[in-house]
Amino acid sequence: MGDTYEEIPRVELTPEAAVLLRRLRGAHGPLMFHQSGGCCDGSAPMCYPAGEFRTGGSDVLLGELVVDGVGEPVEFWMSRSQYEVWSHTRLTVDVVAGRGSGFSLEAPEGVRFLIRSRVVGG
Fold first, then answer.
1. Residue 1 CB: number of other CB atoms within 10 A?
2. C-alpha span between 38 and 64 (Å, rounded)
3. What whole-number distance in Å separates Cα of residue 122 and Cα of residue 56?
4. Best exposed site among 32, 54, 67, 82 by fewest CB in 10 Å?
5. Residue 42 confidence (pLDDT)
């Protein structure tokens, strides 16, 4: 494993995702992501006002995303079961056209967040 593995962020943002997060932050205040297991919308990262989704022992804080123009890091949480499946991947939060879950803050924008992953050695 080693230190080099941990120096690479576990989760990153595309420039498009950062633009959307700045807009959502302006409208809703501090934000957080939660990535659960499952299929369909359950496999997409959900964006909530910070603290609205209760995390606990079954969740892992994967990273704190620093976004230019956003005053605080955006925490990215993942369910422990999903983390075990994706433990050897680097995740990138992206944005695509289309409607995601009605519970995620970007839904009214006509876009949805999605995860792109790539496997890394470890």
1. 7
2. 23
3. 26
4. 54
5. 45
In terms of C-beta density within 10 A (0-12 exposed, 13-18 middle, 19 or more buried), how is residue 20 classed?
Answer: buried
Amino acid at 38: G
pLDDT reported for residue 2: 42
What strand order describes the sheet that includes 74-79? Answer: 46-49, 31-35, 74-79, 59-65
Q: Is the pLDDT of residue 71 over 90?
A: yes
Give pairs for 114-117: CB < 8 Å, separation 24+. Answer: 114/44, 114/45, 115/35, 115/43, 115/44, 115/45, 115/91, 116/91, 116/92, 117/86, 117/89, 117/90, 117/91, 117/92
Residue 119 phi/psi, 5-degree rounding, is -75, 140
